[in-house]
């Protein structure tokens, strides 16, 4: 996950963070099941207050984009309509299979693209 925050920007930092995470989830840059950095770690990396990160995470959780699993961390959830959620879940399963089998990710993407063309 790559996010940046401009503390001097016109948009509040929590909103900058919330929007960037949401965009990455929508584009698939953050896949379903991805574990996000802890609030403290992300706050330190971005040089912002932990409460700022907590607010962004909390709002994304309220919107169903993220879920916090206690001490296990905060994760990306399936997001969108039912069909999109199903495809996100299957994509996460396929990604796990690709990693488990040691298949090159580029080859896996080529195979998926070929299957979609058929």
TrEMBL record:
Highest taxon above the source species: Bacteria
Gene Ontology MF annotations: DNA binding; DNA-binding transcription factor activity
Keyword Transcription recorded: yes
Gene3D superfamilies with a match to the protein in the record: Winged helix-like DNA-binding domain superfamily/Winged helix DNA-binding domain
TM helices/strands, residue ranges: none
Ranges where the HTH gntR-type domain occurs: 11-79
Alphabetic keyword roster: DNA-binding, Transcription, Transcription regulation
Name of this chain's protein: DNA-binding transcriptional regulator YhcF (GntR family)
Organism: Longispora fulva
Source lineage: Bacteria, Bacillati, Actinomycetota, Actinomycetes, Micromonosporales
């Amino acid at each position: 996950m790559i996010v940046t925050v401009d503390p001097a920007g016109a948009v509040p930092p929590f909103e900058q963070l919330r929007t960037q995470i949401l965009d990455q989830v929508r584009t698939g840059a953050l896949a379903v099941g991805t574990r996000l950095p802890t609030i403290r770690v992300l706050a330190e990396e971005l040089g912002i207050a932990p409460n700022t990160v907590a607010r962004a995470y909390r709002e994304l959780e309220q919107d169903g984009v993220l879920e916090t699993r206690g001490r296990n961390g905060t994760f990306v959830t399936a997001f969108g309509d039912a069909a999109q959620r199903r495809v996100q879940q299957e994509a996460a399963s396929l990604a796990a299979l690709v990693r488990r089998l040691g298949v090159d990710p580029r080859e896996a993407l080529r195979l998926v693209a070929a299957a979609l063309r058929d």
